[in-house]
Amino acid sequence: MTCRYEKTDWRDVLYTSVRNTVGGVADAAQFLQNRRGRTMHKETLRAKLRGLEGESVSVEIADLLTEWMEEKNREDATDWIKALASGHGLVSVEVDGADDEAEPETEIFGLCTKSMELTALWGKLSGLLIDAIKDEVISATASDQIVAQIDEEMRALSNLRRNVLATSRLGQPALA
């Protein structure tokens, strides 16, 4: 039987990310064993990640798995944190790092670019919503797509916020 893993359940997101990382669950279990100095069999880790009866993932293990995935350059290493936050009515958004050497003109250009990107993203979100509600029901697949689009827009808004603050610290005059 094939399990369907939800993009909105933090445990499913973590398990999927670990499975899709080079080396998978076996390599992750070995990493945990090396870091914690305690034996962790791959099937024990798999049971914890799947939330089988009596099994659970501690924050320490989830954090170490995130570190392991980041070392392997997984872009989805922190997606489980976003899903966990979302499940509690919170939002976790990645923000691009600030450029400490930014020139005023670069930051002003960044503001304009981010504004245009947001306009394009809003159009995509509107399209997803229109498609999803045609039959007056939002499916799990459509929900996943809409939530992913909203998350992308929140990241873009957070980056715009960072650019605005960076520009104000540079003492830039307001755009004409």
From TrEMBL:
Example of a GO MF term: DNA binding
Domain of life from the UniProt record: Bacteria
Protein name: Uncharacterized protein
Pfam families assigned to the protein according to its UniProt record, in alphabetical order: Phage_CP76 (PF06892)
UniProt lineage: Bacteria, Pseudomonadati, Pseudomonadota, Betaproteobacteria, Burkholderiales
